[in-house]
Write a structure and sequence with these properties.
42% helix; DNA-binding; 5-stranded mixed sheet; Arc Repressor Mutant, subunit A; 394 residues; homodimer; Nucleotidyltransferase, domain 5
Chain lengths: 394, 394
DNA sequence: GATTAGTTTGTTCAAACAACCAACTCACAT
DNA sequence: ATGTGAGTTGGTTGTTTGAACAAACTAATC
């Protein structure tokens, strides 16, 4: 209510942002096309564009093709790729993933840094090294625009509220880097940024209003896009479906959680226990499965069933247009996905929600963070922005 | 994006609606107060109000008190209660509930009509009787403004897509009454309207962004308010939590649903079976429980546990500010509610979501429908409107 | 010449503003 | 007690402002 447009100034600001969003989403695009898309007079668009150009956000790319019945060639406009860059991090269990992106979401660099067993205070200097080395090579006009961190855990008010494997050492990342660089710094749950990635980087999802991204890593969480907005919940804990318990009419004491049965960790541990092995990794499971190991096959068969059940429950809870699975294990064993779909199809009464695997899950979390922090840098949190999907770079 | 305000006309329309919303939410209110609340110039508010008065939506109520340091008395403005009325129906298992409301949400009349065992085609004449008798007594300027129906089942695109106990007989209610009266006609799931009731009629929830209303009747469903908007899902099936299945690592065949364990029906049937009785009703269960019957006590103890589990799962799925329970059984046995809270508190790790019983659940569904259809009549679907909570009338 | 892209110049109209009137409170003098 | 005037607040009236718009222009193409 209080954010509603009420006077000419606010209207003007919003129209400027609408033009910027059009350039973002349809670049390269001409003024006249923006005018048609937004139902704004072409002279209005020209004036608004002039403002954006003065700020440096956009630039002309040269001329496009004229219409085939004659007429002046349009001037193609685009986001200024040399305006500045964002730095996006993902605190994985083994690696710190580091990505540098431009304003348009293009990947400028990507790197993995081994951090297994390190504490956050030991990781901080490594982050600073990355920031410094990127900064040294930078030739953009505005430099660093913002920093995002994908957190495997829950986040509220930019603070980590639960972190299963990385000890936060009472470090306030947001405060530290905001002080240091005077740019937006953003912490967000990994399933949430993954969901934002699907919304903003995947053109196939452009028209979808509701999406659920189920992330199966060491735990299980869902990122929720509801009405094209990220739903974090009141305390940033929406979609913590891994904590769900079974309602079966007669349980006692502390009931077991979904995560205990079918997170990647749970599957690996189960196989490890049954085979009396130690220190097994995902790669071991993949290898065993491909070798036809019976223990592994049966564990993964149960995994398939359980994931199907989780999808079924998510479909009933959220009724999305689509469900994405972000799971490194499934990414390496894609043949399991059709099996999941089959089991799910048997459970669902009428409506079948499409299921897809998130491709390149490392990139997804980083790009989702990139979207969120870029939006914050532009003050365009709620606009519809389609970023480039240049995941093939590098 | 396409619905964004872009020109002066749209801005003007929105500001008119903002003024109307202010009158709605804070009536009686003066022009100067609206001006301050909306940060609009007082002359602008006067002009916008003039428009609304010409349309008949608002009226002056007389003068208010002057400030205690002197100054002219304000003129108090309010919604015109004689503008028109809405008719709101709830298809219960035993009764058809009928409510007439004015533009402000005040209850003008309420009635239950016995419909047990009747088909929809037999109920239709009864509905028409109610509409006719209300219309005959009407003295408003615009008469019938809209009709809403609360459906115990799922609804998509104003069509019933699933109806567990009432056979819809292929009747298209929306089409039939729109043709007949040329007013908005609205069908909505009963848990959803109940959630809308909590949002719009309960002033205590004014600031809450996310709410879950769990409806436990013959089935179990949840109405979801997310970011202060009703989330219906892509097919109107969001919140169908009664269909959730247990993920326990080793199930086969069709797994049992939550509804099978702890809907009101399931509880009654279980007690009935164990006591070898027939045709038991909720009242019988309440009586048996109050008489200290052991079978009933143990069934309700399991019910308490299961409801706590459902709340816990809902909290993890949606992370709301509050959970409401709309359950006639709990309304009649309110002493169970603290027990539910206790079991839930033991399960939840850190964040405890407040739990409340929806008071007067019959009224809740009707008033929720009233809100939705009134909004449609006014073209103010997305505005924040606080309706009056005159549930004590009658 | 017909057509399309973009600019310039002047118009429009809803919100903001300024100045006003209306009606009240309170302090103080009578 | 009562009359008066200064100060305050609610609301209206007439004018100004400024962002979108419209029309007439230039530029560049078929």
């Amino acid at each position: 209510m209080s954010s509603a447009i009420r006077n000419r100034m606010q209207l003007h600001q919003q129209n400027i942002q609408s033009v910027l969003a059009e350039v973002f989403n349809h670049q390269p695009i001409s003024r006249i096309e923006i005018s048609r898309n937004l139902a704004l007079n072409k002279s209005t668009v020209s004036a608004l564009y002039r403002d954006l150009k003065e700020q440096g956000y956009v630039e002309e790319l040269g001329e496009g093709d004229a219409s085939n019945v004659g007429g002046r060639k349009p001037v193609l406009l685009a986001i200024n790729r040399r305006y500045g860059y964002t730095m996006n991090f993902d605190f994985g269990y083994r690696h710190l993933h580091v990505m540098q992106n431009n304003l348009s979401g293009d990947v400028l660099s990507y790197k993995q840094v081994n951090v297994k067993g390190l504490t956050l205070k030991q990781i901080l200097p490594l982050i600073n090294d990355e920031l410094a080395s990127v900064s040294a090579k930078d030739n953009t006009s505005h430099g660093l625009l913002g920093i995002s961190f994908a957190i495997h855990g829950t986040v509220d008010h930019n603070q980590v509220t639960y972190s299963p494997f990385l000890d936060m050492d009472h470090v306030d990342l947001a405060d530290y880097y905001t002080q240091e660089f005077q740019v937006p710094v953003l912490l967000e749950n990994e399933a949430n940024v993954s969901a934002v990635y699907e919304r903003d980087f995947n053109k196939a999802n452009d028209q979808l209003k509701n999406m659920v991204t189920i992330s199966i890593h060491r735990g299980i969480g869902a990122g929720l896009i509801i009405n094209q907005k990220l739903h974090r919940g009141t305390h940033g804990e929406a979609g913590e479906i891994g904590r769900s318990v079974s309602i079966d009419g007669h349980w006692d004491g502390a009931p077991r959680k979904v995560e205990d049965y079918c997170s990647e960790d749970a599957v690996i541990n189960q196989i490890q226990d049954e085979k009396h092995a130690t220190n097994m990794t995902r790669d071991d499971v993949v290898r065993l499965f491909n070798e036809g190991d019976e223990v592994t096959k049966s564990a993964l068969a149960a995994f398939v069933k359980n994931v199907a059940g989780i999808i079924y429950n998510a479909a009933n809870n959220y009724d999305p247009d689509i469900v994405f699975l972000n799971s490194p294990l499934l990414e390496e064993l894609p043949e399991l996905e059709p099996q999941i779909e089959q089991v799910y199809a048997k459970m669902a009464p009428s409506i079948l929600v499409p299921i897809k695997l998130t491709q390149n899950s490392h990139y997804a979390t980083l790009l989702g963070g990139c979207s969120l922090v870029t939006r914050e840098a532009l003050g365009m949190e709620d606009a519809k922005l389609n970023f480039e999907a240049q995941t093939s770079v590098l």
